[in-house]
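Hey, can you fold this one?
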Amino acid sequence: MRIENVLVPVDFSPPSRLALNHGIALARKFHARLTLLNVLEASTAVINPLPKESARAEQEHREQASRMLAALVAPEDQDDLDLQLLIKTGHIEDEISSAIRENKVDVLVMGTHGRGIAARAFIGSVTQHMLRKAPVPILTVCHVSNPLTFERVLFATDLSEPSSHGFHSLLELARVTRSNVSVLHSVDMPSLTLTYTGANDGSRRQPTPTS
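Sure. Predicted structure:
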């Protein structure tokens, strides 16, 4: 698992800022480029009947977003990081996918957030979709934590072929970060129900387990 480019989509929300902190730590650990991406979704883009005015408004947005992205990274971090800023307009998931392909991204770092009691609600909708379609590993960040250290890593496996590929990538990650790895495989056991069948003659029969 060679990590040479770390991509962090940033919408300036608290979850994406947390993800950025982990992206900085990961890029520094692997001496990788750190790419920050901000997407102005097409549905929220400024619509102006005058083409020149619309183009000017979009350019102003790009310049403002570029300044805000740069401001998120401390000067001392910018000095020793290979920082790249990307400003795109379009559908956010499509633009993230394009950025991964065009910039040869090796890992995607994204924030999550809790918005309800359902399990899926604890993962931001964009992050949830990217987990299904991204061609690279994704590191999700869900809450405030210490700077990324990778001292202990838990790998959950179902023993499938994709899981095996993931494990080999994890071993390389653990080697570089000198972290300890624990492997977990859980086996579902069928539930047993004991049923008592009474005989007509009043005698008792032993319970019969059924699955």
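Helices lie at 14-30, 51-72, 75-79, 92-102, 125-133, 161-177. Let me know if you want another pass with a different chain boundary.
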